[in-house]
Design goal:
41% of the residues lie in helices and 15% in strands. The chain has 11 helices and 8 strands. Helix 1 packs parallel to helix 2 and helix 7 packs parallel to helix 9. It is an alpha/beta fold. The protein is globular and about 45 Å long. The protein has an 8-stranded parallel barrel, surrounded by 5 helices. Pathway: Carbohydrate degradation; glycolysis; D-glyceraldehyde 3-phosphate from glycerone phosphate: step 1/1; Carbohydrate biosynthesis; gluconeogenesis.
């Protein structure tokens, strides 16, 4: 079983900071067995090329993009396309993060179009789904995320689905002010995801206030195939420790 451990840096790190982090990772992993762990890192768009170039010496680490447009080219000022991020070295595209849904008006329809574009160009879609606090409080987490996933992956063939990663990130648990979820709170959503999609997609990941204290417990939840990590992994030491935890699960 592959255990995915990745991080998105959001709108953080200069080129120098990104390059230093990537170089440190490459050096730390040189000659080291990963124990079934698949590392990935998703820098800001400005650093994709630089990070990919550094990690060319450690190709086991996948580099990703935090967003890409559904069209291959055109009059889309400020956007980047899947071919462009692939050209920069990305092999994964993060799609549908709750911050993009909230602040940049992403919808289930645009998320579906981006998933399709990512697959069309041979990259891995990392589909992010998650419910707000009021849905979770009402006991509707499972139904909410299954609806999101169903709309995003509608119409895909089984061989396409087999390349998709799903990251469950409850909105109430992510970000600087997020509340870490308990394993009991995550059992039902992951049971629902695993029953509907676990055998069809490449992996089911959890993201939301992941830290060094709860990572092992999160990886022990039935249905969880990996972790999608924020702040804890922005410092290289934290990310390396997460890789060790995942390898020793």
């Amino acid at each position: 079983m592959t255990v995915w451990v990745g991080t998105s840096w959001k709108m953080n790190k200069t080129l120098a900071e990104a390059t230093d982090w990537a170089q440190g990772l490459a050096e730390a992993l040189a000659g080291r067995e990963l124990g079934g762990v698949q590392p990935f890192v998703i820098p800001p768009a400005t650093a994709i090329g630089a990070v990919a170039q550094v990690l060319a010496e450690e190709p086991r680490v996948l580099v990703g993009a935090q967003n890409a447009h559904w069209e291959d080219a055109g009059a889309w000022t400020g956007e980047v396309s899947v071919p462009q991020v692939a050209d920069a070295g990305a092999r994964i595209v993060e799609i549908g993060h709750s911050e993009r849904r909230e602040h940049f008006a992403e919808t289930d329809e645009t998320v579906r179009a981006k998933v399709a574009a990512t697959l069309r160009h041979g990259l891995v879609p990392l589909l992010c789904v998650g419910e707000p606090a009021h849905v979770q409080a009402a006991g509707g987490s499972g139904a909410h995320i299954l609806e999101q996933v169903g709309r995003a992956l509608e119409g895909l063939a089984e061989d396409q689905l087999a390349r998709v990663l799903i990251a469950y990130e409850p909105v109430w648990a992510i970000g600087e002010h997020g509340r870490p979820a308990t394993t009991a709170e995550l059992a039902e959503p992951f049971a629902a995801l695993a029953a509907a999609w676990g055998s069809r997609v490449q992996g089911l990941l959890y993201g939301g206030s992941v830290n060094l204290d709860n990572a092992a417990d999160l990886l022990g939840i039935p249905g969880v195939d990996g972790l999608f990590v924020g702040r804890t992994a922005w410092q290289l030491e934290g990310y390396l420790r997460l890789l060790e935890i995942a390898a020793g699960r």
